[in-house]
Structure prediction request, 358 residues.
Amino acid sequence: MGDKNKKAGILLLLPLLLLSILTGCAGGNQSGARHQEIINVSYDPTREFYRDYNMMFRNWYKEQTGVTVNVVQSHGGSGKQALEVANGLKADVVTLALEADVNEIKNAGLIQDGYVNRLPASSSPYTSTIVFLVRKGNPKKINDWDDLIRPGVGVITPNPKTSGGARWNYLAAWYYFERQGQSIAQIEANMQKLYRNVLVLDSGARGATTTFVENGQGDVLIAWENEAFLTLQENPGEYWIVVPSASILCQPTVAEVDANTKRHGTHDVTQAYLKYLYSTPAQELEAKYFFRPCNRAVAEKYQKASRSRVIRGVPKDGKWIAADIDMTDIRHFGGWDRATREHFADEARFDRIYTLKH
Prediction:
């Protein structure tokens, strides 16, 4: 009977031992784990960058700690991505198109106040701006924002209700018309003309690029600078970039989702993941994918002022970030809380402009 009891006890313990082993190997919340997994919820035009960055970080972190990190990526329209996280998507880190989207997650109680001050450059390791992508030869002779309101010009831009990039597009256009000395009524009238010319409002920036490049719709794509350069790189000779006379400094924002990393036990690896974005190798990689690194020394290596505002190709080394743009930033619009309230909230200016566009 004693031997039978011993065997029964061993059999009962085996499932518990197996569960312990599996949990220790695979989970991010076990001390001494040699493998960890984190989820990065990002916006559309970062797909290629984070594919390479995640491998770079994985190699570096393993050298430093002996721990292998698997990063699961999610991409989509920034506003939609923020809503998914606020509603329960278990992101450890968000790398979104603008601070306002991260604030939606903060307001849901998942990110602590003051997150923008945890990392350099207000938690924006890289920036971008807004340019135009046109077809080879620029058949519609598009040179600036006022050309986008001419009859017969087909415009492609995402939906500001779901896409962070689309909000930057909208604000860059607004700033241009404002610089012309126009009144609010005149600006709104021109914005209505612009959106009257929009053929498709995709949910995110990459979807808009697909509509323009792969589906062949429209005469001009209002695009992130990095997305436009990637298109030139991937389709040599097929497209030109037109740099408008006025644009906006786009500041994508990164943050740890505190409530989730506490639950998952991934705070340390998530902090390392975010801080490594500011390392010289990561800043070089950001520039390789045509983002503007916050490290000035790295950025200056990649900046070239074009003699013309039309860019027809990317140099073989890829070192080209348009430097001669008159840019404002979100402070011009009173910060994101005010800009959201005045322009992008329900029944605010964008809704009125889009409703009245016809």
Q: What stands out?
A: The CA atoms of residues 305 and 323 lie 5 Å apart. The chain has a mean pLDDT of 90.
